[in-house]
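Support reply, case 0932

Customer input (verbatim):
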Amino acid sequence: MISNALITNVINNIFHVVWLVNITLEPKYNKKKTVCILAATGVSFQILFIWLGYSGILGGKLYYAGYCLASLIYGAVYIFGVSICPFKAVFLMSAYYCVWTFIYNITSLITGTFAGAGNVQIWLLRIGLNLFFLILYHTLFKKRFLLMYHEIRHGDSSITILSLLTFYMVSLFVFSYEKRHNHSAFYILILISIYVFVLSVYVALFRFMSRLNYEWQLKQMQLHEKLLLAQIDSYDEIERNARQTRHDFRHHNIVVAEFAKNRDYQGILDYLQNYDKEETEKYAKIFCANHAVNHVLSVYLAKAEQKEIEIKTDIRLCDISGISDVDFVCILANILENAINGCMQAEGKRWIDISVRQRETKYTCVCKNTCTSNVLFENGIPKNKNRDSVGVESILRIAGKYAGNADFSDDDGIFTCRVVFGKCLQ
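Our regenerated output:
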């Protein structure tokens, strides 16, 4: 009996590792290291299971111990060991565990045996069902899961709690009917009802996340509209400057000609240098080679200067790769928008100091600005009772999309926003 249960456990552990590798959508490490960590977990758990089985310490409770230890050990490694965001990883882990118990219950129902021990029929059925759901996941659901996974916001605790509770409820059912070989019609009815309920919960969660995504996209469209209007204004200003330059060009020629008549060549050079300096200041500053990023910086820094906010910049960007221009612009626009709003609430001298650095495909944005001395934080996220926190949510969402994160702090009237993000995982 122990040897049969051992083979069943080996099959379970192999598929635990395979499944967790495939549902690690935002890994801390590269693919190879993630596989090694999860494989080592599988081997370690298998050794522990063998020791518990042959030592006789647990007696007849080996099944319960194996079920609970597998849930805890694999869950802990997946959530805290290989996933970037533990809060969101609970959602996928719980969903997989529900699939795991479904395979167990279907196997037990079809074979009419206690699937915890095992025989050839059970082993083949387990392998077949796991492969079927893996293929189904890859062909139909992985891309959808990836999109929805990114839409789980910091603070959407209801999504994580509900997904965890569904697995807890299914586990209670498994424990209640453990070792029942004779499956009555009532048992089958309860089994069907539970999994219909679990499926309904996840459908509702997906619809809820879709609605959140729609609302977020609508707010981003409003932000893009503001950026577009600001861009139109800047183009109008450039056109006015160009017209003024064409109008004044004749007068400049007269001055240069007068210097030339007097053979004052040094005067010509000095005059042209001053002319070039004045013309350069009329147009937007060049911060980097990327036109979209350069434009959003120019627009918002000009807006800050209009509000008499002192600006200091340190922009060190090369050719941006692996990051959508739209996402990069959204992060910078939200950072600067929040910085300007924070400065307007501050008393005394107002200033913004923004730094954008690049290291290969990793980017770091650090913005410091004066602000009010009583910034409110909730779970490390700044809150403003007078406005919604769309900007902060957008920063967190986009940073998470690119395997990054953001942190915020307030130190005696100096607010700091730090965002780190890198190559897209999609």
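We compared this against your earlier run and they match. Two observations from our side: The mean pLDDT is 79. The beta strands are 310-316, 351-359, 362-370, 376-378, 381-383, 405-411, 414-421. Please reopen the case if you see a mismatch on your end.
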